[in-house]
Amino acid sequence: MKPNIPDTTEQTMLERVDAAAMLDRTLAWSGIQSGTGNLDGLARQAQALADAFSALPGDIRLEEPEPITAIGTDGSEMPLTRGKHLVVSVRPNSNRRLLLTGHMDTVFPADTDFRTVREVEPGVLNGPGLADMKGGISVILEALKVFETSPAAGDIGYDVMINSDEETGSAASAPLIERLARGKMAALTYEPATLPDGTLAGARGGSGNYSLIVTGRSAHAGRNPQDGRNAIVAAADLAMRLKALTYDEMSVNPAKIEGGSANNVVPDHAVLRFNIRPKTLKAAQHFDLSLSLMLEEVSAEHDVQIHLHGGISRPPKPIDEKAEKLFSAVQDCCEGLGLHYGRKDTGGVCDGNNIAACGVPVVDTMGVRGGAIHSPDEYMIVESLAERAKLSALLFHRLALGALDAREIAR
After folding, report:
1. Could you tell me which residues are beta bridge partners of residue 391?
2. Is 91 a residue whose pLDDT tops 60?
3. Which H/E stretch holds residue 214?
4. Could you say which DSSP state residue 130 is in?
5. Model pTM score
6. Do the beta carbons of residue 389 and residue 382 sit within 8 Å?
7. In this structure, how many other beta carbons lie within 10 angstroms of the beta carbon of residue 380?
8. Above 80 in pLDDT, residue 2?
9. HSE of 268 in the Cβ direction (CA atoms, 13 Å)?
10. Rounded CA gap, 244 and 247, in Å?
11. What DSSP letter does each residue of 223-280 carry, written as one string?
């Protein structure tokens, strides 16, 4: 028998994967509207997940979201309310532990018309959150349930974290992710595969969202415009300078300028919102310095005040030696199961960025195969539910048996 092929114990474990049950619960969860701002829907989803994950031999709790704020169109800082996050802890005292993460929120608001599931072709379902990522959460649960039947299960512990705000950057769950990542030998995140064939995401760039609140001085546009300090003009100057910071390792997208009033009034207020995508940590650090200098220059040249809100929420995620070892373990399992293995770098971001920034190796597209996420065309390939559950269960089993040396991976 080839080394990658599941042995008798592993085959017995994998035969317990219940594809029908996986599909049933994924469809039920898809029917719960749980957009990031839909607190009632998120509460229903969290309870449904807590009930389902009670099948595991661990403690379940709902964690309060971290307080966060946003900038309104008037430049004022206002609190944002997010849903609770689900955490399942199994064998917390184990010396070798994993972190498994997913998110219960979707991009679809409470009043969306995208509510039902339909079959677009045999074995392919279209529906809200099926791929991103209620199917992925179902994979986590099924893989852990069958893994717990293995004699090796007791040799490893794990935390499962399902947050409520991933689609908006995980600001209210980032401290929780960091806390749970501490001391873990490896992590897996259950975003959908990057391609319908199951290709995984490799290195990821980072992402940051910012608001610049510009305060000038109002004046009559005809009688005394020289006494005004035009906040819109200053914001426009900032937008042009920000865009000029784009290069191979960094993209900057000035997205919106808000403010102003009547045509005959020099505007004393503006808010500029922008996003950055650094490919490397060095690029992110260089941007911070450039932005600081830019704000000083524009403030002085336009005689305005500028307040900065926001920052990098997803650090860049390179593939280091520890991550390569984890990817190799995943590849071995794919080959043993006869599944396609592929990996490609991507500009998209997810909670895997945050985990990697904690020094923990992570593979962050262990969820279902599908596509067209964040749109009403989102779809899931049904057979991938069982495929990916078997992949994870086999990986858990081999990690428990020492596929990764805990001391080496934690260096």
Report:
1. none
2. yes
3. strand 207-215
4. I
5. 0.94
6. no
7. 32
8. no
9. 9
10. 8
11. T-GGG-B-HHHHHHHHHHHHHTT-BTTEEEEEEEEEE---TTEE--EEEEEEEEEESS
